[in-house]
Write a structure and sequence with these properties.
The chain has about 200 residues and is mostly helical. It is about 50% helix and about 5% strand. The protein has one domain. The protein has helices at about 1-5, 45-50, 65-85, 90-110, 135-155, 165-185, and strands at about 55-60, 125-130.
Length: about 200
C-alpha cells in the first residue's frame, strides 16, 4: 500500500516551505465542527488597502484544522501579496499554485479508487473575497486540500489506507500550500523574469 501511495501521486521530493473578507463579513455555518470560529483574519487591514482587480466573493467550506489556520493566518496576507505581484513573482506563484492544484487533484483521484461510504464531516463556512484570479486559484487549492483531507479520513476510518498513509498525504499537501506563503514574502524585485528567486 505505502509503495503504491508514494508512486501515485508522486511524492514531493523537496519539503516545500499561501481572499478573505473583513471579520464582519465572515460567516460561520454549522455549529459543532470542533474548530474554533474564525473571528478575525490576519492582514485584513493590508488586504483592505489593496485596489482589487475584481470584487468577486466565494464561500469556502472547510473541515480541517490546517485549512482553518491557513485561512485565519495566511490567506489575507497571500491575497494582498498576489494582488500587487508583478513579473517573475507572478510566474513563481502561478507555477506553485498550478502544481499544487494538480497534485491535489491526482491525490484525490488516487484516494477515490478506494471506494467507501462517504462520511459527512462537520464543517464551517467562511466568505472570501477574490482580488485576482491567482487568489481564486489559492482558494481552489484550499478547497481541494479539504476534500483530500475528507477522502483520506474516510479511507483511514474504513481501513483502506493506514494512519501513516493519511499523515504522509496531508503532510505533503500542507508543505505545498505553505510554500505559497514563502513565495509571497519576498518583494517583486527578488524574482527574475522566469520566476526564479534571485540568489538561489
Amino acid at each position: 500500500m505505502a509503495a503504491v501511495l508514494e508512486q501515485t501521486p508522486e511524492p514531493d521530493p523537496h519539503p516545500a516551505p499561501g481572499v478573505a473578507s473583513q471579520p464582519e463579513q465572515s460567516i460561520a455555518a454549522t455549529a459543532g465542527s470542533g474548530l474554533k470560529r474564525i473571528d478575525r483574519l490576519t492582514s485584513d487591514s493590508r488586504l483592505s488597502r489593496i485596489n482589487p482587480e475584481s470584487d468577486a466573493k466565494t464561500v469556502l467550506r472547510y473541515s480541517s484544522q490546517f485549512a482553518r489556520n491557513y485561512i485565519r493566518s495566511d490567506y489575507n496576507f497571500c491575497a494582498a501579496k498576489i494582488a500587487v505581484a508583478r513579473g517573475g513573482k507572478v510566474r513563481a506563484l502561478e507555477t506553485a499554485l498550478r502544481e499544487t492544484s494538480d497534485w491535489l487533484r491526482k491525490t484525490e483521484q488516487w484516494l477515490l479508487r478506494h471506494q467507501v461510504r462517504p462520511i459527512e464531516l462537520p464543517h464551517d463556512l467562511i466568505e472570501l473575497t477574490i482580488t485576482r484570479p491567482l487568489a481564486g486559484l489559492l482558494v481552489r487549492c484550499l478547497t481541494q486540500y479539504d476534500r483530500v483531507y475528507a477522502r483520506a479520513t474516510e479511507r483511514m476510518m474504513t481501513g483502506k489506507i493506514t494512519g501513516e498513509d493519511r499523515a504522509r498525504i496531508l503532510d505533503n499537501a500542507e508543505r505545498r500550500l505553505k510554500q505559497v506563503v514563502q513565495i509571497c514574502m519576498p518583494d517583486n524585485d527578488q524574482y527574475d523574469f522566469d520566476g526564479e528567486r534571485r540568489g538561489q
